[in-house]
Amino acid sequence: MPEKRLAIIDGYSLLFRAFFATRYLSTADGRPTNALFGFTSMLFNLLENKKPDAVVVALDAPGKTFRHNEYAEYKGTRREQAVELKVQLPIARDLIAALGIPSVEVTGFEADDVVGTISRKAEANGYDTTIVTGDLDSLQLVDECVSVLTMRQGVTDTITYGPEGVQERYGFGPEFIPDYKALVGDSSDNIPGVPGIGAKGAAELIQQFGHVEQMLERKAEIPPKHLKKIEGNEEQMLKSKWLATIDTNVPLEYDFRPLIISPEGMEIALAMLESLEFKSLVRRAPKVLGPYVSHDGSPPGRVAVAETELDKLEVNASDLPGYEEAAQFVANRPFALYFAAPVRADLFDETERIALLAVAQEVRRIPEAAAFRLIEDFPELAILHDAKVVYRRLAAGLPQPRFDTMLAGYVLQSGRAAYMLRDLVAGYMDIQPPETSEEYAAALHILEGPLRDRLEKESQMRVLTEIELPLVPVLAQMENTGVCVDRDVLREFSKQLEVAIDQAARHIYELAQMEFNIGSPKQLGEVLFEKLCIPGAQKTKTGYATGAEVLGQINEPICQEVLQWRELSKLKGTYTDGLERLIGPDGRIHTTYNQTVAATGRLSSQDPNLQNIPIRTDLGRGIRKAFYAESGYKLASFDYSQIELRILAHMSGEPALVEAFQKHEDVHTATAEQMFGVPTSEVTRQQRNYAKTLNYAVLYGVSEFGLAQQMGGGFSIAEAKALIARYFERFAGVRGFMDNIVVEARSKGFTTTMMGRRRYFPDIHAAKINERKAAERQ
Question: Are 212 and 182 in contact (CB under 8 A)?
C-alpha cells in the first residue's frame, strides 16, 4: 500500500509570511497581490514536491480565543493588519475553495489548534503529515509521522523539520517547545516568559531538567544565575507554557477526502490567476494541478508530470576529448557554465575537476581547463552565474560575458538577501529547481531567456549591459591585483594603540574607583548608573543601554573616556590586527567587491571592507598610512564636489540650487543666504555650517529630532522643525520633487534612477507608521 500523505496549511500564517517576504506586487489597476502570489507559489511547490493525497487549510476564526479569556493581554502587541494584506485574504479564500481544498476554522480556537488536532487525527488514520506554516510554534507537533515545512527566507527557500531537525536546531526535542516558550516568551504573541532568560539559558535548563514543572520540583538545583530570574515569576512561567501549548483536542470533523479538483473549479482558479496577472502561475497550473483534476467525478489517478525543458535535455555524461571539439561545438552558439560562488568542490570530479557545459539541448562534461579556455576564447557566448568568480581565474583584459544570471537577478530585485541559481530558477521558470550538477548547468542555459524577457519588460537591460556586466572583468582584475599594505606600519601602530588602550583603561578605573570589564555592557551600566549614579540612564531588558548614542549625550569624563577606549580597541582589533592577518604572501590585501549586496546599486567590499577604513580622526588616518602604492605608481583620490546636491538640483529643477551650481557658487553659502536672509558676503561660518547640515538632512529625510541633534549647541526640536519648514518654503522645487517621489513609490512600489535602475520599497504601504516613514525617507 502506498503511504498516505496529508498536507495541512496554516493559511493566514502563510499569507502573512508571503506578504512580507514577497516584493510588493500589484495588478495594472492597482490591486495588491504579493501575499497571494507568494501563497499560491508555495501551494504549487507543495503539490509538486510532496504530492499529498489530501490537503486542508486551517484558518483563524473571527473573534477572541479561549486563551484571551484567561489572559486578556494575549497577542496584545500585534499591530493591525496592513490594508494591502487585508484585501487579499478574501481572494485567497475564494482561490482555495475553487481548487476544492477544504478550509477549517473553529470559533474560540486558533489555526494552530486546528492544525494540531487534524495532525493527531491524521496520525491515527495512518497518514504521513506535512504542516506548512510560517510559524515555528507548530514544531511542538513534530514526531515520526508529522513534519513541519517552513520558510528560511522568502517563500521558495524552505526547510522541513522532523524530530532530528528540531533537536539539532534547539538542543532538545519537539515536546519541549512549549517549555522553551515558557522561559524565553514570545513577543509576537505577547507571551511574557521569564524576563532575563534567553535562548541559551532556556536550552541549558531544558537539557538539565526537562519540562518547567520538573524545574520547579528541583528548584534547589537550578543554577543561581537562572534561579534569581525564575523566583517570583513561577506563575507567569507556567501561564506562558499554557499559552504556548497547542490544543490538539479541538471539537471538529475532517473527513480526509482526497484532493479532487473539478474542471469547473480548475477554470475558476485559472480565471482568478489570470485576473491577478500571475502569468507564470497560469503556465504552471496545468502541470501542477493536472494530477488532481477529475473529469468524470472519480478520483484522478496519479499521472506522470509533464516533461519540462530540463527533462528534454540529453545528458551526455561522457567527457569530451578536450577543448578543440568543444570549441567547434559552441562556436557562434551561446553556452552555459555553472559555477557556485565560491566554486563548490563537491560539484566536480575529485580526480579531474570536471566542469559542466550546457549547450542547446545537451549537457556535456569537459575538463575544467578546457572550460576556462572556452570562456577566454568565446566570452561573448558565455552564460555564467557569478561570472566574477570565474573571471578571477582567467586572463586579464577579457571583455564582459554574454550574460550573468546572478547579476540579472540582482538588477531585477536588488533587495533580496541572496541570488542562488536554484532560487532564480524557481522564481522565473516553470520547472523544478535543479538538483544535480547537470541540471544546474542546463537550468542556467535556459534561464537566460526568461531573465532577458523580464529585464526588457521592466526597462532594466541597460543597467545590466552598461553598468553591471562591464564591471565584471574590471572588478576581477582589481581583486586579483589587491592593495599594497605595509605590515611593519600596522604592527608599530598596533603597539601604540595597545599603550593608549591601557592608559584609557587605567583612567576609567580611577574615575570609577574600581576595576571592571569595560567591554561588558552589563558591568559598565552598573558602574555608571548604579555605583556612580550618573543621570541619563536608559533601562533595557538586559540592563542599561550603554551605546555610543547614549554615552555621547552624557557630559561626564568617564563616558567620554569609555568612548575613547572603544575607538582605540576597535582600531586595534578590527584594523591594525585584523588587516595584518589578511595580508597575503604578495604583501597585498585582496578584498572582494560585491555587486549584489547593496539595494541602492552601489558596490560593497568585504574581507576586509576597504570602503570603511577610518579617516575622520588622527588615529584613523594612522591606519591609512599603512596603504601605499607600488614603486612607479601613485595612490589617487577622486571625489565629485557635492555630488548628491548636484543630482538633487538636476532632478528637482529647483531654480535656487541650479543657479548656484551654474554660477559655480558655494551651494551651502547660497542656502544660508536664502535661509537666514543675509547677503552672501555677510554669511557667517556658523550659518554656512547650519545650511550645510540642513541641505544633507533634508536630502536624506532626517527627522526633526535627528536634525536637532546634528545641529548641536542646544538646538531644540521645535527650532529644527521650523528650520525644515522654512527650507521647504524657500526651496519649493525640492519639496515638490520629494513629495512626487514618495507618491510614485506608493503607486508603483518602486522608484527609478536616471539610468533606469529600480529599487523596491515593500514597507511604503506598511501599517506601522515608523516603518512607512522609514521607507519614505529611503
Answer: yes
How far apart (Å, rounded) are the C-alpha atoms in residues 98 and 259?
12
Alpha carbons 136 and 149: distance in angstroms, whole number: 9
**Other beta carbons within 10 Å of 102:** 15
Phi, psi of 122, deg, nearest 5: -65, -40
Q: Are 288 and 44 in contact (CB under 8 A)?
A: yes
Give yes or no for a contact between 150 and 40, defined as CB atoms under 8 angstroms apart. Answer: no
List C-alpha distances in Å: 455 to 407, 410, 461, 586. 11, 11, 5, 41
Average pLDDT, rounded, for the chain: 84
Backbone phi and psi for residue 668, each to the nearest 5 degrees, phi listed first: -70, -35
Task: Please answer whether residues 261 and 293 qualify as being in contact, where contact means their C-beta atoms are separated by less than 8 angstroms.
Answer: yes
User: If we measure between CA atoms, which residue out of 398, 439, 385 comes closest to residue 596?
Assistant: 385
- The C-alpha angle with vertex 760 and arms to 754 and 764, in degrees rounded to 5, equals 115
Rounded Cα distance, 432 and 283, in Å: 13
What is the tens place of the pLDDT at every residue in 344-401?
Answer: 445 555 455 556 666 545 666 777 777 888 888 888 888 999 999 889 988 888 999 9
Distance from C-alpha of 324 to C-alpha of 366, rounded to nearest angstrom: 11
504 closest CA partner among 559, 541, 556:
559
Q: Cell match 516613514: residue?
A: 773
Residue 651 in grid coordinates: 532632478
- One-character DSSP codes across 19-38: HHHS---B-TT--B-HHHHH
Q: List the Cα angle 380/382/384 in 5-degree steps.
A: 135
Q: SS3 of 9, please?
A: strand
* Burial of 242 (C-beta count, 10 Å sphere; 0-12/13-18/19+): middle
421-428: average pLDDT: 84
pTM of the model: 0.61
Tell me the pLDDT tens digit for each residue of 590-610.
999 999 999 899 999 988 888
- pLDDT (average), residues 25-37: 81
Q: CA 778, CA 764: separation in Å to the nearest integer?
A: 10
- Residue 437 CB neighbour total at 10 angstroms: 20
State the Cα–Cα distance between residues 592 and 296, nearest whole angstrom: 61
Cα–Cα distance between 73 and 189 in angstroms, integer? 9
Q: What percent of the chain has pLDDT over 90?
A: 32
Cα separations in angstroms, 740 against 19, 218, 261, 414, 734 = 26, 64, 47, 22, 10
Which DSSP category does 762 fall into?
A: G
The residue type found at 433 is P
Please report how many Cα atoms fall inside a 13 Å half-sphere around the Cα of residue 569, on the Cβ side. Answer: 12
Q: What order of strands is seen across the sheet that includes strand 103-104? A: 103-104, 54-58, 4-10, 127-132, 146-153, 157-161
Residues 6+ apart with CB under 8 A from 688: 666, 668, 669, 672
- Residue-wise DSSP of 129-147: EEEE-S-GGGGGG-BTTEE
Is the CB of residue 110 less than 8 Å from the CB of residue 135? no
